[in-house]
Amino acid sequence: MVNDQMVNSMTTIILKPHKEESLLRFHPWVFSGAIARVVLDAKHKGDVPEEGELVCVQSSTSNVLGVGHWQVGSIAVRILSFGSDSLPADFWRTRIRAAYKVRESLGLVRKDNNTFRLVHGEGDNLPGLIVDIYADTAVVQAHSVGMHVCRTEIADAILAEVPQVQNIYYKSDDTLPFKAPIEGEKIGWLIHDQMVNDSEFWSVENGLSFRIDWLRGQKTGFFIDQRENRALVERYAHGKDVLNMFCYTGGFSLYALRGGAKTVDSVDVSQKAIDIVEANVKRNFPDCTNHRAIAADAFDYLNDQINAKMVNGQMVNGYDLIILDPPAFAKHRDAVKNALRGYQRINAKAIEMIRPGGILFTFSCSQAVDKEAFRLAVFSAAAQVGRSVRILHQLHQPQDHPINIYHPEGEYLKGLVLYVE
Fold first, then answer.
1. Dihedral of the CA atoms 142, 146, 151, 153 (nearest 10)?
2. Helix axes of 151-161 and 91-105: crossing angle, nearest 10 degrees
3. Distance from C-alpha of 278 to C-alpha of 376, rounded to nearest angstrom
4. Using alpha carbons only, what angle is made at residue 201 by residues 198 and 207, rounded to the nearest 5 degrees?
5. Residue 287 CB contacts under 8 Å (≥ 6 apart), including other chains
6. Rounded distance, CA 341 to CA 374, Å?
7. Residue 219 scores a pLDDT above 90
8. How many domains does one find in the chain?
9. Which range marks the domain in which residue 113 is found?
10. Environment class of 72 (CB within 10 Å of its CB; exposed 0-12, middle 13-18, buried 19+)
11. Which CA distances in Å does 337 have to 45, 340, 348?
12. H or E element: which one contains 376?
């Protein structure tokens, strides 16, 4: 299917003088402040571009810079193709094919690993689009109205270019602009050629089976971006008492169990998440007796553990390995200050209760918090508690969440592995 916008003339966005420089460096965003005027297509029915409309961007000297999706907000255009004034009919298939080949070349498409991110927005030159693969099902998430408008073409391209995919689920109810005039369903099946048990769907990551809940779960149903970091936890877990805070569906916990952990405690405030953790453990380790799943607030749990295990001002118990993988404390820049306080507070509690010689994995997935600010918050936590801490690893998102070199804003996941004396 070919979108009419790809073959007809289109609205043109004229930039102010010298505002084309970022596009000449292949940065895929056009900010509203860079726009001098908008020249509407002669067939246009309104007096402004429609959100999600395909538009051509030109410099003040009429040089064609690229074509992309129009949207309302500070980011006015997300560029899909540089240096052209239209998209070819095979655009979606070409981009999806390229993304899939990258994942194949990285060794992510294997019998023991059918879970990976196929499209990571700007990192795969498809700004505003996320596609995750779980076995034979692709979950598509639009972060722009333009991608929502093109969801059918995107689904057709995935089905044509990704051999294992037979079903495509669309989940954009929480990611599309809240006030955008959106037509069509924001959630539901786009392609459903066979029966899929939504309530009990399993996929495999590095030989471990995980139940995926794309209907009610966070993101697309699973946090694929921690795959390599989970594998690192497995390396450190042998013989250790492990605490997995903000565990969600227990990804780090399963890797720790496979790595030979002495005990693993999984803590999350959501009882639904805890139920899935228990199902995941039972599926992979049916005779497991060294795992506990606990529904509790993270700060309350840590406080209770610290208070229960303090004797004469000293910790007498605790954990050898703690994982802190909280949800985004800052979803926008106005919340950064409070987020950094939150990171300092939660890390201070973990550092206080971890045993001497313990290992702390600590993360931030807040794009608004840069890695230097996050590191400073963790260092402040260590200083507050008064323990000596060394950095063993600096962690980031995996290879199927690539960062476009011209779009450094795509680097969002940052983590530290610390040795606590």
1. -140
2. 50
3. 35
4. 165
5. none
6. 10
7. no
8. 3
9. 91-202
10. middle
11. 44, 5, 17
12. helix 371-385
Amino acid at 354: I
Which positions are annotated as active-site residues?
A: 365
Residue 378 lies in a domain: yes
Token readout for 258 is: 């496979």
- Reported as a single tens digit per residue, the pLDDT across 277-335 is 999 999 999 999 999 999 999 889 988 887 776 555 555 568 999 999 998 775 666 77
Q: Which two tokens stand for residue 399?
A: 């290879």
Residue 127 inside a domain? The answer is yes
Q: Please check whether residues 107 and 58 belong to one and the same domain.
A: no
pLDDT, tens digit (0-9, with 9 covering 90-100), for 144-203: 999 999 999 999 999 999 999 999 999 999 899 877 888 889 999 999 976 666 668 999
In this structure, is residue 21 part of a structural domain? Answer: yes
In a shared domain, residues 72 and 95: no
CATH of the domain at 414: 3.40.50.150
Instruction: Please tell me whether residues 39 and 99 are part of one structural domain.
Output: no
Tell me the one-letter amino acid at 360.
L
Task: Give 4's pLDDT tier (boundaries 50, 70, 90).
Answer: very low
Other residues' Cβ atoms within 10 Å of the Cβ of residue 331: 12
- Give the H/E segment covering residue 359: strand 354-364
Same domain, yes or no: 379 and 252: yes
**Residues 69, 175 within the same domain:** no
Tokens, residue 40: 């509407």
293 DSSP β-pair partners: 266
Contacts 24+ apart (CB under 8 A), 48-53: 49/11, 51/145, 51/146, 51/177, 51/180, 51/181, 52/144, 52/145, 52/146, 52/148, 52/149, 52/180, 53/5, 53/10, 53/11, 53/146
Tokens of 219: 């993101």
Of the residues 40, 61, 82, which one is the last residue of a structural domain?
82
